């Protein structure tokens, strides 16, 4: 009788073990399904992100390519006026060129491009390029002549002014 009871206990333990193995198998299948689902979501997200990067790169390229389109259209307006001035009589030529000059300066200003002021200014290597150092009655380091005008675009120097700078008075004794 004891042997039968021991045998029954072993069968019960095997049944419980098989049941717990079945439960673990179910949990494993659920975990694997969840893992596959998350992996699929990850792959889709990675693909979406790659597409986003490509799209923004294309859009940025387009923006850069056509960034100056508005400015170019305004320059074409100046070109039209220059062509009209070239067809005009000599008496009207100077006045026409003066009007074109004013138009050109206003277009530059509307686009944030302004000339660098050099008159009675002290030499500033961030804004000026000294092309001559000349003795004069002006104090040393002051600009005495502007050879080529410099320009800023939104507070950034895009072209330095080419200037002649005073050496101060020179004694020839």
UniProtKB/TrEMBL annotation:
Q: Where is this region: Disordered?
A: 1-26
Task: Name the major location.
Answer: cytoplasm
Q: Where is the composition biased (Acidic residues)?
A: 1-14
Identify this protein by name.
Protein GrpE
Please give the function described in this protein's UniProt entry.
Answer: Participates actively in the response to hyperosmotic and heat shock by preventing the aggregation of stress-denatured proteins, in association with DnaK and GrpE. It is the nucleotide exchange factor for DnaK and may function as a thermosensor. Unfolded proteins bind initially to DnaJ; upon interaction with the DnaJ-bound protein, DnaK hydrolyzes its bound ATP, resulting in the formation of a stable complex. GrpE releases ADP from DnaK; ATP binding to DnaK triggers the release of the substrate protein, thus completing the reaction cycle.
- Assembly mode: Homodimer.
Annotated coiled-coil segments of the chain: 28-55
Recite the UniProt keywords alphabetically.
Chaperone, Coiled coil, Cytoplasm, Stress response
Q: Which organism is it from?
A: Methanocalculus taiwanensis
UniProt xrefs under InterPro entries: GrpE (IPR000740), GrpE_CC (IPR013805), GrpE_head (IPR009012)
Superkingdom of this protein's organism: Archaea
Q: What is the lineage of its organism?
A: Archaea, Methanobacteriati, Methanobacteriota, Stenosarchaea group, Methanomicrobia
The yes or no answer to whether the keyword Cytoplasm is present is yes
């Amino acid at each position: 009788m004891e042997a039968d009871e021991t045998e029954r206990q072993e069968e019960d333990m095997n049944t419980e073990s098989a049941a717990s193995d079945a439960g673990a198998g179910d949990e494993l299948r659920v975990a694997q399904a969840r893992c596959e689902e998350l992996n699929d979501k990850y792959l889709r997200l990675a693909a979406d992100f790659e597409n986003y990067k490509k799209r923004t790169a294309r859009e940025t390229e387009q923006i850069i390519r056509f960034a100056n389109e508005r400015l170019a259209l305004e320059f074409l307006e100046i070109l039209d006026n220059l062509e009209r001035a070239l067809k005009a009589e000599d008496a009207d030529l100077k006045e026409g060129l003066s009007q074109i000059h004013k138009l050109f300066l206003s277009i530059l200003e509307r686009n944030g491009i302004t000339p660098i002021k050099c008159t009675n200014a002290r030499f500033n290597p961030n804004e000026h390029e000294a092309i001559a150092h000349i003795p004069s009655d002006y104090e040393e380091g002051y600009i005495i002549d502007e050879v080529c005008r410099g320009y800023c675009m939104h507070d950034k120097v895009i072209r330095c002014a080419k200037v002649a700078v005073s050496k101060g008075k020179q004694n020839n004794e």
